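Annex B.
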Amino acid sequence: MKKFNIRKVLDGLKEVSSSTPSVQVGPQENHLIQETLQSDHFQLCKTVRHGFPYQPSSMAFDPVQKILAIGTQSGALRLFGRPGVECYCQHESGAAVIHLQFLINEGALVSALADDSVHLWNLRQKRPAILHSLKFSRERITFCHLPFQSKWLYIGTERGNIHLVNVESFMLSGYVIMWNKAIELSSKAHPGPVVHISDNPMDEGKLIIGFEAGIVVLWDLKSKKADYRYTYDEAIHSVAWHHEGKQFICSHSDGTLTIWNIRGQGKPIQTITPHGKEDGKKPEPCKPILKVEYKTTRIGEPFIILSGGLSYDTVGRRPCLTVMHGKSTAVLEMDYPIVDFLTLCETPYSNDFQEPYAVVVLLEKDLVVIDLAQNGYPIFENPYPLTIHESPVTCCEYFADCPVDLIPALYSVGSRQKRQGYSKKEWPINGGNWGQGTQSYPEIIITGHIRLFDFPGLQLILSSFLLVMLQVLYKLKTAKVFDRNRSKEDKSSTEVSDEDPFAIQIMAWCPESRMLCVAGVSANVIIYRFSKLEVTTEVTLNTQQFQNCSCTTCHSLYETLFFSQFLSLSLLFSIQLCLLLSRVRSTPLKQSAGYQVDLVVQLVWVSGEPPQQITSLALNSSYGLVVFGNSNGLAVVDYVQKTVVLNLGTVELYGSNDPYQRQPRSPRKSRHGYFLVLFLYELNCMISATGLCDINEGSATSEDRCKSPTSGNIVHIGVDCLVILLLCGCFTSLCFLLTVLLSVCPPRGANPLDHRDNSFSRSRSSSVTSIDKEARESISSFHFSDTFARKGDSALTPCLYVGTTLGTVLSLALTLPPAGEQRQLQPVIISPTGILVRLKGSVMRMAFLDSTGSMLPPPFEPWFEPNVTADGEEREKVRKRRPVSVSPSTSQDLNESQYAVVCSEKQAKVISLPSQTCIYKHSITETSFILRADVVQMSQGVSLACFCANGHIMTLSVPGLRPLMDVNYLPLTDMRIARTFCFTNLGQAMYLCSPTEIQRITYSQDTCENLQEMLGELFTPVETPEAPNRGFFKGLFGGGAQSLDREELFGEVSAGKASRSLAQHIPGPGGIEGMKGAASGIVGDLARARIALDERGQKLGELDERTAAMMASADSFSKHAHEVTEYV
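Syntaxin-binding protein 5-like: predicted structure tokens.
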């Protein structure tokens, strides 16, 4: 009879009734570890954001500071300077940014939003802040214009009116240009919204106003009336001046450009249809020209640059930017629709020759800078990490404090991937200065991507994170290893597919050995080795044709997904055996330096049934093993010997100690038996520098090769070429792996039918044939470690720990052959050792600590060049395994040498090894669940970091599991966040905040304190270029630029006050940072100068009074002195 324990019942009731997480500590007399981490060591804050601005809507450029600003539809601002100088700001309203204007060389930026608000940003601080805001309530903002070196901002509205705002005080002026006064009195129609405002380059008192309906007005600011009006039949989208102020150009909705003289208001002097075909007298209409710019040069013809205007018959043509220079017209195709473009010029003055040298083109998903000074208009190589979204991101991994030689190695091979034909000039957006922070350590971000069939495969991008800098180092296309040749029928059948079969789902990476393993959504696993040498591989293949099948779905999908180069492993059962056609490359596969395919494992489609997706993945370079699992079970692959070590169902991991009640069912009968298909391919490697290294084929007879797979026997074809294991039986189609399967491919030279001395080395039948869906258990996590495999062990053993979705952690002991030649020949033996611990919820993370509480990383093998022909002894020196040292503390027994930290979706436990007793337990959440958990190394100790679905980020001490930080940071609003959130060492974390942007955060107090020094500075003191020389004759005869005293014209004295109901002034943040920003910004400088002048005048007045008083006192003293002298 089982002993009743009332204490467990009370503990369970206490845990259920408690609404807050609780810590339960077991006997710990022998588990006293001094924990150094405290709550003061943690603070959560955002650091930097990288990537392309999501859904951009507007753009501006400061030609003196060399700073680029991009606004988005979500109200975000991204500012870019030189590589490594970036900044992210966010408007609280979240409305789209429709217009941006720099206060050139003043360290300030004006933004206009779709909610009719205008904001002034101070850029003279590392984290820009809003100084002033103005919210319009009766009119919608459509256009903004701020003349160079002016403090008056013109704001055009949807009603056709123009208001003026003083950027110093951010107050409206009483001067208003009404639409009914701008157009002719005889006109009865409304001219439409204001689409353009700009002053005449040679006369600041003349303002040109473009209305959407096709009316352009030249307004005299002093006389407050229209000098000229220009009318065209088509709607206007933009207007641009010639620098002499005598002509301007308009772009229209019918794809035409009209050039006007300011004194000739009848008809345009020239009408151009850049992309129109001449059909008789009048060119055919084209698409609207959305924007045009007119830039002049001292030598040569002017540039006319425009976007849009293509012919309507160009269906499917890419968006284009057109550059017209003299008689030549260049049409530059873009990959994405054009949002906006700006021409970069040598001078900020509009009344001088512009001398354009580049065009910045903002696309929906890219930023392109075109060099106008070179023939062919090449683009500049973009130094920003804006290609993260080049293909949609499916998963991320984040590694901090990587080996110092890793980034140079990745950079050396990644630099060879760069495209050719870039401009030879330096990147023109180079403003700002780097931060002065002292914290610097190499970091790597790996992003897995998806590729649709229209694109050539899938990308995996590795990036280096140094301080606040991000640089793309290396790209890897994993789809290259698959045969993607499909017929037209196949292509049409895949159009309805929502997922790409080559998309990466999970990644595992060892920075020390540089081994990389990726799992795709099509249940394939690819193992890569890193090499600095180029290598050519060809395939030795023996094929076996099975019985035909009419399953066309299986044919097409398998032809698409099956990799015919290296190793293919099936872990699926099927009702029917289908004809699986593999398309082998007839030519050798050339692999460039970098990551090269070493092994491919593929779970195949059979009888139209897709394989279950892989849910967990891990590799260990010291053991030479890769393990992956899904809802059916797990498989362990030895990538050194190219063999399958273990293939085991989830239920069979427990053996006879299964703690769950799984009711078996009577299986349905089927005409076909289930089987396991194992395809194994080997490589012939031809190293370009060393010649051929052939692998001998087997000597199987043709009779064996043609043996029927339905015979029930193991058929071996060649040596390591093709193995088909057929297991007959009748099972239901609800579960694939309901038997214990262990298929081991024999090593070279061994008998293929030899059974290894391992209780799990051969297939065994199981009494459990089906389980309910509710009780289905998947593999959720793995962890390799040298630890105590069994309870009471005294020696360390290589182990594999398996976590399941039902909260069970099981251990498997690994018996590895000695290093060297024996590792290539002797088998790896795996033995289950039982259940380590059970928790609530799916197991998320496992880690091990030594007796002092320090983290024990998994053993690894140092990187070596795999394509060298060194002798055996020299090669084994670099391949020597790194030993794991155990240093038990003096306060505990030698038997308690390690601690296992296990975290599930709900709770965390710490297990003492080898006694396997739970010494600490903490319920992390009751109402939510954990999305990501990692045991991380901080500078002061080890911590457990968790991100919950309710948005809380928490840290706990290890091994004590004391709560150290709990911040409600970010609610789970998008599955992208859950899929990409990553913790790493030294208090860093990251996630994809949008489909195109990476947000990095820190939970380290040290990083938060040093963040201000680490961030770059956007504003740097630069002298404003001198104004163009007017010349003697222009100054004598008045032909130069005419200035305007806008303060006198628009000030409150002459223009009066604006209506209070028109707009509401909102002061900026009242915090100390905003006040400091105002003190250092342009508005603060102007106000401070004014105060200084007032103080100076007051002091001068006081000085005059004191001087007068002193003079009077001196006169009085002199008078009294004379009187005394006379008296004496």
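The two ends are 133 Å apart (CA to CA). The longest helix spans residues 1082-1127. Further annotation is deferred to the next reporting cycle.
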